[in-house]
Amino acid sequence: MKKWIASIAVLALILSGCTQRSADDEEIVQDDAEQEETSIVPSNRLSGDNYRMILPYKPSEARGVITRQVANRVDIDEMEEGLRRLSKDSYNPEDYYFQEGQYFDSSRVTDWIDQLNPEVEKGSDEKTFRENPRYLTHILEQNYLKSMEGGNANLEGISIGLAMKSVYEFQTDTGEPTQYEDISESEMMDKATEIAQNIVNDIRENDEELSDIPIMIAIYREAEQSSPVPGNFVAKTNVAAGSNSVDGWDDVEEENILFPSDEGQEKYYDDQERVTNFGNEIRKFFPNYVGMVGEGFYIDGELQKLRIDVPIEFYGKGEIIGFTQYVDGLIDDIFPNYYDIEINITSSQKTESLLYRDAGEDDIQVHIYD
């Protein structure tokens, strides 16, 4: 969690243009269709498993499309970070630089979404809508570059994330009630395979500069629109340089679990019990406590990150400090340190304090906001 918070701080400086260049920073040259551009790659990165990023930071050519297409904010964050995480298996952070997608602009992405989804006219009957759901929500591009001899940085890999619906919401006509059609994972994957193949064909045929670039494709299954926790990636594949064939999928064993919940109770009983005990201990001493929401992120059934949001009404700064100190002790008593943990304490006005501990660490970092 400490790494994530530091990432945000660094990115804010990057976007504001306030970063200072170090003598050890690497200068690279990027070629685009119009000009040769000199960029900087900072010498430092937050950890060995993070990508170094090219400065000045270039937002995606399709920036903004995801917020118009993906209904649940938690899915947006998880998809972007998750695609970068999965890309590490194909593009080692030791060798590659990260850059947001620069090749597919908003118009291209929107056209793909419209063309690759079934077209149903407004006013069609319910049966037609249910038999022709819009499966595809968004197409996310990320670029991975390598430094070459002579100081050039060349594109050496692309990752594409396909956001697919788990539930299709529709109205047969304006003013009619919203209806829902569940989409099974197997049905979703059948459609995702077809969509992925069409996108790869289009790229290889129409983007000359990408004709010999490897492409990693990952399938993201969205959560329901009202879900407090995000969906997750379920499959990925690699299309070799020069190939246009999508040959099968590798399963991605990731999931985000809500605590407390029936699913949490069934799949991860011990973790749910810890979260529940944490809430019970708070309730004993703080009558203003109104409940909490926990979110566990798992890979291959192993908890990687646990985030808990604790809303409570405070009547003074001293109460906030006392409550934060109390939670600090509870973390040590209840939660083991083999996964990242983050606890946000909030009031109706704002986040009041943050406690976090990285996996393998003993010390808990605490920040109380002014």
From TrEMBL:
It comes from Oceanobacillus neutriphilus. Keywords: Lipoprotein, Signal. Pfam families: CamS. It comes from the Bacteria. This is Lipoprotein YerH. Residues 1-23 form the signal peptide.
